[in-house]
Specification:
The protein is α/β, with parallel strands linked by helices. The chain contains four helices and seven strands, in the order βαβαβαββββα.
């Protein structure tokens, strides 16, 4: 089940209660967000990464959370492991994860690497 977050309290509860959490900041009008959203939905529906919980935050409805996380471009994805934000690492460097054109295999690989699955 994908969580739909609508407040800072809900986000804090999701972070605290899920070992591996992926938070997708998106907007309904955003094409790349829809592409990434479909990938996330497929992964969730097919239980391809059952150790990971996905959450979505609509930036238009929750711009206070978008500001708090310095979301300047969407889609933006944040990773939380054991209640703490963890960076997406590529080639040994921490990078923001903002790939709307990410395919299922790539996202699964990123999840395995980020959460040591």
């Amino acid at each position: 089940m994908i969580l739909h977050i609508n407040s800072e309290k809900e986000l804090n509860e999701a972070i605290a209660s899920n070992k591996n959490l992926v938070v997708d900041f998106y907007a309904d009008w955003c094409g790349p967000c829809k592409m990434l959203g479909r990938v996330i939905e497929d992964i969730e529906a097919n239980k391809l990464s059952p150790e990971v919980t996905f959450a979505k935050i609509n930036v238009d409805a929750n711009n206070d959370l978008a500001r708090k996380f310095s979301v300047f471009s969407i889609p933006s994805v944040y990773f939380f492991k054991d209640g703490k934000q963890t960076p997406y690492i590529e080639n040994g460097q921490s990078k923001p994860f903002m790939l709307g054109a990410c395919d299922e295999d790539t996202l699964l690989s990123i999840l395995r690497d980020t959460f040591s699955l």
